[in-house]
């Protein structure tokens, strides 16, 4: 028993470190250092441009306030729904949960299109309103900053919902019962006990929503142009169109900087608040709040809301797929199945579905495994440097996907590792894009597993791999499956990265939908997107069935 | 032969000194306790022995082998140490049955199935859980989970057993029972035990020797009787059992004894190898103070508690409150004027700093 | 261990997919038989056209990367940073890009034997690029919003419809950029200042403009004729107005990249694009041909019947950054 018995956790740490280096750090560095280049020499010219041109510095401010507003509304909506879905006796809670998560599977530019179809100046709801009121126009305008915040909220509140629902589920019921015993009423308990206890989860979800909207391109691109409202991501896109590589990378660096500032801020708040309430191996079932007389009205309210944000956009998409052309009058002659027949016959579309399934499944699996290992090192083993690793793995979340795609070309298009033009470069890009999600979800999952459970295995003589296999992974399983799905769903319809990296025969669903859309085949694109949504819904149902409801949404 | 040796072990977290230069050894078949208030570093010391924390400085031997040495850069991972451990919250894996939990240490050793089978039966029998082998932990009571944890720690026949406040989550009755069972188990197996507790009754009752810790340092090591009768400072005296501290002044010294003046001029001569001068504190256990109608120091009974075999008084003498415990042979009333005499006492310097 | 089984089986399934799908690993065809085309031509059209070509030259394999002009621009810029453009052929709607590429020395000069049938103003005199199709910037009208008789007949009247009018963003779209360059070269920025003052909307590109028009969000749109024709064919109540000053006919040039690994295959593809056969195939897909000896699609005016505005390519290429910046100042800030 000597020094030769090395702690294998450091080996594992080195391996994951290498993974993060290759997938995240090296590619992003390739982008970052180019922001300081002008004709091959060091220069701050691009940064000077960013701060002297009102288009660009206004874009920074716009990005910040739109994302803050989105995060705030996500926190309100997500928390309220999580309360209803987890802690009350609301009927059909499970179905409610499944439906709430659905819009997340919609590509964000498709979500934007769906909302234009609904709320746009000639959207279905706008026309309905005009008929009802006899006015010339609807009293709202989706092509505005408020419209962007609205669609971003619908798209991202799910992140708050999931984190808060998780925290509420693992909260010790006795904390609330103690307050009840002290004579506090239901709403007082909610306000003074429950809310402060899940506040870290609310803030963590809010941060995800903030950074997500900060890095979102599809929604501000489709809704902001007409309002002449630009944010950082759309400015990056411009800079690339010019093309001014240095400016694009400088703007991207600004974006990452803004995200980092808020990440640090949130870390500071959380440290002040104390960490999550860690619950030991003993399982406690949180008590259900009896809604009594408010049960029916709240149920109706929640149903209307979920129908509005989940079902109507999907129906609107399906409706578009069924119409001969978008905007056609809603009568029988306008309906057709041609677009579905067309997409099913299109070889490229079938190939895209297979490619995307392959990429999404592999990306979800690899990032989940990497996420577990990184979180393990940080949360459980608490190794030196694991915090930095965790942090590095989270950075890509704040980087616009276009920039990640460029980073991949710069890093992996040259020998000896020339992945360019193959599916593998898309896979590496997906790994970078989705690693932060996997790290976040597995992070909170592992936090729930009490340290002593692993320590007991160590004392029992179990080595690292045995501990992961026998103790940690089985205990973290439900969270891991949820995390897997959280990567799989968006990866299945990823667009921004794939459009720059795909090559002959390596097209993805997102690319195909976009190319159809771009060529004016909006209805065919909607048909393909509808098929993908259908696959996701069925897939989710199957997973729930197989795991007895332990996984899936 | 010593089974555990800890040599000048220091553990520092950033700017907090959790354990400072601790040295101790646990002999074969010895039941050794680490006793101290919460946050004194006793659990950290235990976790260092287990390899769950890495010492900042110092050496640890388990049996013959050096498992920690900062000088030689040795830190044997927990899984390679010949130890068994029971955690405060049991740490029974909720996704495994009792049988799976207990057999796990043998399973990772890849022992043949039939050997595992046999040892498992022995281990379950030893803790009396044969009938619950197929249950999941959520179907067990706290005491039963504790036994699972104990069986799991013993099944791999470790050289030493580490127990981290294993009884603190049990109710009083069960705690009492487990105390006897643990002691009995140790007698049968002869396994040396390093036991962490903040409960002094538990430590006194079970240990062969114990170390009293405070603020990261070991204050005193000794047998329960030594610790109880000859505490090295006010902290130990105060922490172990009940103790009255009476301010006094040394007025005369001769050899190893000192004569002090206390409680309104009363004089008393006590053994004092320390050779203190001036202001001091006299420490006397409640049972070492005699109470009677007559007695050199006048006092009045302020409160009385009937404990069954004993009677516990609070008396006031010259404005000083003292606890006195007497056998139930003679009973005094509250408010009664009495006399007391101190039969046995220890002298400490009155400097408050010595209480650590 | 239920979970690890699920994990394993999902891995196994994903590992199997490549066997059903030869596209996963970039096909390694025989050397000399492959050419890679980057194009913004609509996916379906590009695919069908490629298939038609491969029928005539089965030994050559055309691989197609299709994306919007902006994405292709980004891809080219990134590729330049890591050792050069990977494409063999480039077929975009963004004519000015070709002047930039030519100036950077990134194009291969090739005068196709078919080029003699193409009018001189649709090709580079040195053979660096040749128009492969024509797309026309026109005024499209949604007759349910603006009756045809009230629709503007000329570009100069276009801004008057104010909020009912929409155009694509030249910062995204090449054909819009050419259009802006034509207007500015002729009359300066007055047209745009008027458009901004009256509230003409800017959307991303021509297909979005056409979709929004079909969706009745606008009454008129500046967009491309073939997109509108497609919508009319599907039954949308749209109409095309050929502006009095002249339409802007944006050639969509095809060029060979200098670093092509397979000049012969690339040249063969260019020949086919410019050939009578190739152009006739494009006509069946509603594309306006570049050859005088091929008739335009049914219902479309032939090139000789329409008035076209001259395009100042070299001027536009030289002043590209300034034009974009000024446009942004006037229309987007």
Q: Helix amount of chain C, in percent? A: 40-55%
CATH class annotation of the largest domain in chain C: Alpha Beta
The first-level CATH class of chain A is given as Mainly Alpha
- What do we call the CATH homologous superfamily of the largest domain in chain C? Periplasmic binding protein-like II
**Global outline of chain C:** globular
- Figure out the total of helices of chain C: 12
Specify the CATH homologous superfamily of chain A: MetI-like
CATH architect. name of the largest domain in chain C: 3-Layer(aba) Sandwich
Q: Which class best fits the helix and strand makeup of chain A?
A: mainly alpha
Tally of DSSP β-strands of chain A: 2
Q: How would you characterize the largest beta sheet of chain C? A: 10 strands, mixed
Strand content of chain A: under 5%
Query: What is the count of β-strands of chain C?
Result: 10
Q: In words, what does this structure look like?
A:
Chain A has 553 residues and is mainly α. Helices cover 74% and strands 1% of the residues of chain A. In chain A, helix 1 packs across helix 16. Chain B is built from eight helices and 21 strands. In chain B, the strands form four sheets. Chain B has a six-stranded mixed β-sheet, with helices on both faces. A five-stranded antiparallel β-sheet of chain B has the order 2-1-4-5-6, with helices on one face. Chain B has a five-stranded antiparallel β-sheet with strand order 14-13-12-15-21. In chain B, a hairpin with a 2-residue loop joins strand 18 and strand 19. Chain B is of the alpha+beta class and 356 residues long. In chain B, helix 2 crosses helix 3. The C terminus of chain B is likely disordered. Chain C is of the alpha/beta class and 333 residues long. Chain C has twelve helices and ten strands. In chain C, strands 1, 2, 3, 4, 5, 6, 7, 8, 9 and 10 form a ten-stranded mixed β-sheet that branches. Chains A and C meet through helix 11, helix 15, helix 17, helix 20 and helix 22 of A and helix 1, helix 2, strand 2, helix 3 and strand 7 of C.
Record keyword descriptors for this entry.
heterotrimer, B: 356 residues, alpha+beta, Rossmann fold, OB fold (Dihydrolipoamide Acetyltransferase, E2P), 2 domains, six-stranded mixed sheet, five-stranded antiparallel sheet, 8 helices, 21 strands, disordered C terminus, C: 333 residues, alpha/beta, D-Maltodextrin-Binding Protein, domain 2, ten-stranded mixed sheet, 12 helices, 41% helix, globular, disordered N terminus
